[in-house]
Write a structure and sequence with these properties.
The protein is 4% helix and 35% strand. It contains 1 helix and 8 strands; from the N terminus they run αββββββββ. The radius of gyration is 15 Å and the shape is globular. The chain starts with 9 loop residues before the first helix and ends in a 14-residue tail after the last strand.
Length: 125
């Protein structure tokens, strides 16, 4: 197989790196290393919530519902994704949080991939 082709398994690989399967944080020689985009395969239990709101987001994002029921929270607006394939897009500077209303799988794409940018988890807050 070509070194420019990578075949993976999102659920298995995501479990190894907090859900992230592509971005600047992968090793430079890894085909999944990318400085333009980050991709996350998120698996969430019912009732799971983001530890803290993301404030001052530096990237744009797209979140697609694969399965379940997932609520994205934005200032003054909640968006509930309940059918496979539904998605929401938000831009730079848009504060947000989320909650899995049912066991859910979502795919998130963020751009650009910003080195050093990380939102604190509950343990850091």
């Amino acid at each position: 197989m070509s070194e420019n082709v990578y075949v993976g398994n999102a659920p298995q690989e995501a479990a190894l790196d907090a859900g992230w399967i592509m971005g600047h944080f992968k090793a430079p020689d890894d085909p999944r290393h990318n400085e333009a985009v980050e991709i996350k395969w998120g698996v969430h239990e019912a009732g799971e919530r983001r530890a803290a709101w993301v404030r001052g987001e530096e990237r744009q994002a797209l979140l697609v519902l694969i399965s379940g029921r997932f609520r994205m929270e934005f200032p003054g607006q909640d968006v509930v994704l309940s059918e496979q394939g539904q998605y929401v897009v938000w831009g730079k500077g848009v504060d947000h949080s989320w909650e899995a209303e049912e066991p859910s799988v979502v795919m998130t794409v963020r751009w650009p991939s910003v080195p050093g940018y990380r939102v604190p988890d509950a343990a850091d807050a």
